[in-house]
Amino acid sequence: MVLPWRSRGGRRAERRNLSTSGDTSVVKIKVPAQLRSSKIELVQSPRAPLTPRDAVEICRRLENATAREENAECLEIVSKIKNLVRDNGETNKKCLLQYGVVSELTSCFQRFASTREEHAPLLEEVLSVITSWLPLNRTEGFSKMGSTASLKTLVRFLNAPDAKTRQNAVFCIREVIAIDKRFVYALTDIEGACEGLIKIIKDSVSTSSTKASIMAIYRIISCDNKTVSKLVNLGLVALIAEMIVNNAEKSVCERCLVVLNVVCDNEQSREDVLGNALIVPLLVKKILRVSDLATQCSVSILWKLWRKNNDHLLVEALQVGAFEKLLVVLQVGCEEKTKERASELLRNLNRCRNEMENTNCVDSSMHLKNVKKSF
């Protein structure tokens, strides 16, 4: 058999072994043009899985480089860890996690975050690796990300110009403050933390980062009531109303309603919620439209606002069909607490409706008993 490249002067195919990186050997073969469509010019052998010995050695090297504050060496090791996990997925990840790589990565982040020098590329790379492995809140060593130095760096990244860095920062903050209340208080004491979380939502960096920011805010206001007013003053209520209107995703709507429910526990913040003209119509609309959780939160928020605002809220709720919606809630069934609040709202809505009809306070064209609402 005469091969195509031997028929033109007997030239032999050149075969060269390129440099080997890690456990991968890449072989490049010079192929004639008529065979290049088969895409066999680059042959890559699979990487061997990481061994426990390799994982221990990587952790040891990173520990030593961190102790010496060798920026370049740490960056090289962290990049290698990132590539190992990317190339061999869960196998290498489990091996590294088992032998304590998270503790070494968080120690590296904490150490270089504490120095006065600028180590942004290294810190961003470490944060990128840690974020890709979340959740890690039960992993040994992850709590080091809650140190003051680490949190200050995370807040700085939260307000950085790069969208990916901001996203990684908010993911990490969400996980860190879920570990301990101490980290919540430490975070809110840092200038720019609350502003950064609000800005993540305003800028719509990504849907996942918006969800992470909302959950971080929920954790903060659940633990630290003093921060509620600060977040409300930054425009939290208006942002929540806007997200409920514009975002059709169920999980985003649920998170927004959960946050708004906690905001309404703060007496001062309830005034801001009542001051938003969209809130009551949105709450009534979301009853029985999204999920059981959304219904529970909507009823709870209406009940809390009514307790503060008395009959003014009831008039508005009647006009957007709250009476009919709450009747259906009781008919289809709900948890006991929601049932009690819905029943109390219904009794007072009915009383308010009767009073309005008896005193002719409503426009003659509005017959609330017979009106049919689209929702």
TrEMBL record:
Keywords: Coiled coil, Transferase, Ubl conjugation pathway
Coiled-coil region(s): 335-362
Function: Functions as an E3 ubiquitin ligase.
InterPro entries assigned: ARM-like (IPR011989), ARM-type_fold (IPR016024), ARM_PUB (IPR058678), PUB22/23/24-like (IPR045185)
Pathway annotation: Protein modification; protein ubiquitination
Catalytic activity, as annotated: S-ubiquitinyl-[E2 ubiquitin-conjugating enzyme]-L-cysteine + [acceptor protein]-L-lysine = [E2 ubiquitin-conjugating enzyme]-L-cysteine + N(6)-ubiquitinyl-[acceptor protein]-L-lysine
Source taxon at top rank: Eukaryota
GO biological process: protein ubiquitination
Positions of region (Disordered): 1-21
This enzyme's EC code(s): 2.3.2.27
Organism: Brassica campestris (Field mustard)
Domain U-box: 56-369
Name used for this protein in its record: U-box domain-containing protein
GO MF annotation terms: ubiquitin protein ligase activity
